[in-house]
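Q: What would this chain look like folded?
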Amino acid sequence: LTGSGEKSDDFFKWLDTKYGSGDRLFDEYDKDETTPPSILTGVSLSSALKIARSEANLILLYVPGATPNSKTMENEKIAAKSVRKYAYSQAIGEFKSHYTVYAAKRNSAHGADALKKAEKAGGSIKSSPILIVLAPVTNKYSGKITMKMLSQHHCAPPPDSEAMVPWLKALRKRYGKIIKAMKVANDEENFAREREEGFVKSKKQDQKRKKEEEERKERKRREEAEEAERQLALKERRVQFLASLPIEPPAGEGTTTLSVQYGNKKEKRRWENSASVEDIFNWIDAEFNVEREKVKLSSANGAKSFLFEEDASTVLSSCGLPKMAGMRLEDIKMMDDEDEDEDEGEGEGEGDE
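A: My prediction, written as structure tokens:
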């Protein structure tokens, strides 16, 4: 864990320079390490408290001395090594910790702020180094996270690498109720947040469904309006078709009688052989209330067939029909579907072979 301006390794390199006295302070720990020590540095104590609270952790506050001297140097080295060893062991999962290790330089802005708050909470900031255990506390009225001092080590001398774990473990057991309360509060907050997120998500889904339903209704309304307008245009067109049809001639030479079957309806009409296929389709459109562009006219035995788009200009006399011709009318779309079914059937047969 690091702040935006400093890495945990950088903090310990600074300690190495400050207290190493020409020797590598952390040589014994650096040989096989590939994971950075798990400390929080480069951020304010307030930010550290929020992070610790979110993880239901206590805080180990570590602030080394400002200026080493012959009296404090040994203690500073012990504290630096033990904190680093604890933070590294925690990082690699050597043990389950309930602590967030927070480190700050004494003369830095974050360090000065941390010491001021620690002193206000009852800590002594005159000793060097400083090791204080704090608990994040949430104000039940404002929701603001503050801190409560649980213990401060006298650091004369500080706990070494072997003594650090038992010291912190004892404090963890002593203040286990605080840790448990933070866990319970976190669970309740997470549950409330999930419930709120679920409510918001459900509300958004309802709004989306409502919008989609409104769009569907509007789309249907437009389609119905367009279809009504189209049907009106077709109705007017059929009136024109009937008005423009050539007069039905009497029976005799040069005429052909067509008997057309469409579904359960059957109509018959006589035509001059000079009439066009377009005239016949116009009559079919008006008589059967079916769009001429969407049907196929075929002889009863299927030998002859006609489409408006392809045969409109063809003259009846060149259609090769008998003087009395039975015809059937089919929807083009329905015929296309039947053709597709036949193609699929042929494909299945080929596959079986």
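The longest helix spans residues 176-244.
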